[in-house]
Amino acid sequence: MSPSRLSAEERDRFSWQLARLLYRTTRLFGVTGAAVAAICIWLPGAMTLSNAVACSSLLAALTATQLLMTHRPHPLWMVLAFSLGLSLIAGIYMPANGQLNIATTGAISAIGAWGIGSMATILVSSWGQVLVLLGALASTIAYILLLTRASEPRTGSILLSIVTGWAISTLFGIWLRSSFPRVMRRVSSIGRAHNVERRASETEAQRHRDARLLHDTVLATLTLLAHSGVGVPAESMRAQAESDGLLLKRLRLGETPQPRSSGEYTLTNTAELSLGGTLEALKGRFGSMGLDIEWHGSGQIGLPGTKLEAFILALSECLENVRRHSGVNEAHVTLSDDGEMVRGVVTDAGSGFDPATVPDGKLGFADSVVARVRDAGGSVRVFSAPSAGTTVVLEMPK
């Protein structure tokens, strides 16, 4: 995929990231060249004090122009930086009367190769810029030859350093421009793959929520009907079936209602209810179905909305399992809140079961209780054995 096939937003991000990287590289090369030149100028015996101070002033001006050129790109800054670089070369060479030493040779080479040669990194985006680059390099070489009249024995090494510095900057700019699109295409493909995976995860999570919702509602009613509604008043069965019909209708229309509890489908978010009212509603509903609930402990639970909803719905499903599978008509629920953790303990003295024998793919307890609490950040522990009753501990951190 070429950059032209990316979206407008991706192309904008591509161009911005590439320009930022090119200008940062240019700034790094230029400042490095200026720093090397400053070190050479101030080496003992390199220049007189007055000349070193004057050249340092020009060097500071060159560095400031390089920073402005890469922070606020404009052709005038590039022209000014180029002019300052050439002036600085003359300021180093002329006071020496053509007698360059190793230090001043290094300073001129650093300025010519990197102080002004660093601009080659950003002059490779079009043929017009390449022509400007070649013209600037030719002007720099001609300026050095004119300044030294080719009589300075170190002229050859200076020109070699300048050509090498400009070549490295040019090649580095070309390499960045050619490799950056590949990187952006790879990043873009990773981003698209991430979005596909995220949507698939969201779809799978929604499927689990819908399956959990139907299990806690419609399937519970169908189970009662399969057992001829034994122990449940006909009026309660009729009301529950009516609520199931409304729930299925809303699901078919694309809504995502949240039932208050299994079998009581007024589509009210549990987080909007007071805890006392919710517990009384649970007690009343299960009482109408023949299950007596004894409440113990705190009547106040300080959980945020999402966690409170998951906690109450899981608690309701535990009671539904007691009603359907335990063979007894009484359950004990103990609630506690120690300020950091909320616990709910559901106990019955019924037939019990072996937790190890429950299939992993079974939707009921594993999804409506364990997965629901785990998704909200809590945990579930089950203690049971055949003919020894069952205790389920729900723990939800605040």
Automatic annotation (TrEMBL):
Domain of life: Bacteria
Segments forming domain Histidine kinase/HSP90-like ATPase: 311-397
Entry annotated with the keyword Repeat: no
Annotated Gene3D superfamilies: Histidine kinase-like ATPase, C-terminal domain
GO BP: phosphorelay signal transduction system
The keyword Membrane belongs to this UniProt entry's keyword annotation: yes
Cross-referenced InterPro entries: HATPase_C_sf, HATPase_dom, Sensor_HK_TwoCompSys
Sample GO molecular function, one term: kinase activity
Keywords: Kinase, Membrane, Transferase, Transmembrane, Transmembrane helix, Two-component regulatory system
Organism: Mycetocola miduiensis
Sequence intervals crossing the membrane: 21-44, 76-96, 102-124, 131-150, 156-176
Name of the protein in question: Signal transduction histidine kinase
